[in-house]
Write a structure and sequence with these properties.
Blueprint: H1 2-12, E1 14-15, H2 22-25, E2 29-30, H3 32-45, E3 50-57, E4 60-69, E5 72-77, E6 82-85, E7 93-94
Parallel strand pairs: 1-2
Antiparallel strand pairs: 3-4, 3-7, 4-5, 5-6
Helix pairs in contact: 1-3
Length: 96
């Protein structure tokens, strides 16, 4: 199910740096924060454990998710099209 949510967001939401959050995501556009919040909401609605993570990449502030699927935690980043990694990507630094 977690993969289906990733695919839905990937297909239905276009990246927009100037997006204003979840309300824009419902209109089909969103920045990394909106995409990550939307993904977390979808997971929460069906009882999948998911975390919203804030941090940085080379291009600046960024947001992505960590989701538990099949008993394993995976990182997911819809904005950068990165799917199901067991390790945090070298390009990402999270804020604890």
């Amino acid at each position: 199910m977690a993969d289906k949510f990733y695919d839905y967001i990937d297909y239905h939401i276009v990246y927009d740096f100037d997006s204003r959050g979840a309300s824009d995501a419902m209109k089909g556009k969103g920045n990394c924060a909106a995409m990550s919040a939307e993904y977390r909401l979808f997971c929460w609605l069906v009882g999948i454990q998911c975390e919203y993570i804030k941090g940085y990449t080379k291009s600046g502030a960024h947001a992505w998710n960590r989701v538990k699927a099949d008993g394993v935690w995976y990182y997911i980043d819809n904005a950068l099209c990165l799917k199901r990694s067991k390790k945090l990507w070298k390009t990402h630094v999270s804020i604890a």
